[in-house]
Specification:
Number of strands: 12
Number of helices: 14
Number of domains: 2
CATH architecture of the largest domain: 3-Layer(aba) Sandwich
Helix content: 40-55%
Structural class: alpha/beta
Largest sheet: 8 strands, mixed
CATH superfamily of the largest domain: Type I PLP-dependent aspartate aminotransferase-like (Major domain)
Radius of gyration: 21 Å
CATH class of the largest domain: Alpha Beta
Distance between the termini: 41 Å
Strand order of the largest sheet: 1-8-7-6-5-2-3-4
Strand content: 5-15%
Shape: globular
């Protein structure tokens, strides 16, 4: 059997796909502009708070610096996370929670735990492109459900459940990636009822939920962590370098996931990163930081919408929060071709079909408004659109 092959081409030759976008954004040098990336600019992040946390850690007990972490992760960070889950209406105790190295690792562990090759998994169409990439590595069948401004199309969701009997459904309830939509209470209740009827598990990825002005409906809160698993991390709000994720789920599954993390990682997540995040979440500094980010994003989103409008690009909806705008390009343009033309001029974009399992989003583009303040982005975008056949 040949080795696993996730993409058919070399990085430079491959078509515009999820790996193309990830590699272009992650490997770009400082001169490259990245309005297609999925993180905030460095100068938007709490640099001084991070440095204080690192200095504090350097003065801490040497065990944290020298030894493997505990299998469930930092007790201090887990206590803080339990408090934050309670604020979202999610009743959880210590047995419901474990830490992971990243939010992506959290999803990977759950997929290893629950899936077998050939199983069926539901995702939104469009959805976060790395969901598709990771599921491809697990050799499962992925089925897309059309996404609307109030959440997944419930009729299509129910139809797929009846026909396919999927094992998992992966989604973002709050500030959906890439659309920015937020699930409505009515849709949330219907999803849970349908999932219960087909014995399907839901993974609720809440990595950007803190960008909401106030909490919206949470599937995990309605379900009580029975068939919903919540995952998240702080890479979008605090640091993508000091990474730490988490999983909140039913206790017996947490036990199995802890064993799986030991088998694949030996021990728990990186204790240094976990303690840094715990330090940054303590006190009122994080809340103030998020309040300022939300205010800044409101201004930047408004400016970006106005400037894109001049190019004939319109948002699919105006999200309640976050940094993404899912936009429709002028009629007839293929966003993949626009992205290829733009990257040749040092601007990385995120074309619609990398998010779409059905390949039905060629006329869309996801923009990160925090990376849209440089005039050169709009100049290159205009030229790329004009040069696209």
């Amino acid at each position: 059997k040949p080795p696993l092959k996730l993409s058919a081409e070399t990085p430079k030759a491959r078509a515009v796909d999820p790996f193309w976008v990830s590699r272009q954004a992650l490997d770009a040098d400082e001169a490259v502009l990245k309005p297609g990336c999925g993180w905030l600019p460095a100068d938007w992040m709490p640099d001084e708070a991070l440095r204080r946390a690192i200095r504090s850690l350097a003065r801490s007990d040497s065990d944290v610096l020298a030894y493997y972490g505990s299998t469930r992760g930092s007790p201090a960070l887990r206590r803080l996370l339990l408090g934050r889950l309670a604020e979202d209406g999610i009743e959880a105790g210590p047995d419901n929670l474990m830490l992971t190295n990243t939010g992506t690792q959290a999803l990977d562990l759950i997929c290893r735990f629950l899936l077998r090759p050939g199983d069926t998994v539901l995702v939104d169409d469009p959805c976060y492109f790395n969901f598709q990439a990771l599921l491809k590595a697990h050799e499962v069948t992925v089925v897309g459900v059309p996404y609307s401004p109030s959440g997944p199309d419930v009729a299509a969701f129910e139809a797929v459940l009846g026909a396919q009997r999927p094992r998992l459904y992966i989604t973002n309830s709050a500030i959906h990636n890439p659309t920015g939509a937020t699930i409505s209470p009515q849709v949330a209740h219907r999803l849970l009822n349908a999932a219960a009827g087909s014995d399907m598990t839901i993974i609720e990825d809440e990595i950007v939920a803190d960008f909401e002005p106030e909490p919206s409906t949470r599937l995990a809160a309605l379900d009580g962590l029975c068939r919903v698993i919540r995952i998240g991390s702080y890479s979008k709000t605090l640091s993508a370098s000091a990474r730490c994720g988490y999983i909140a789920a039913r206790p017996d599954w947490i036990e199995g996931l802890v064993d799986l993390q030991i088998a694949t990682n030996f021990g728990g997540p990186n204790p240094i990163s976990a303690e840094i995040i715990a330090h940054m979440l303590s006190g009122g500094g994080y809340r103030k930081h998020m309040e300022e980010l939300r205010r800044r994003l409101v201004r930047t989103r408004r400016e970006t919408v106005e400037r894109l409008h001049r190019l004939g690009i319109e948002p699919w909806l105006l999200p309640r929060g976050g940094f993404n705008l899912w936009c429709r390009l002028p009629e007839g343009l293929d966003s993949a071709l626009v992205a290829q033309a733009a990257v040749a001029e040092g601007v990385v974009l995120a074309p619609g079909n990398v998010f779409s399992l059905s390949q039905g989003a060629a006329g869309f583009m996801r923009f990160n408004v925090a990376h849209m303040q440089e005039p050169r982005v709009y100049e290159v975008l205009a030229r790329a659109m004009k040069a696209t056949p």
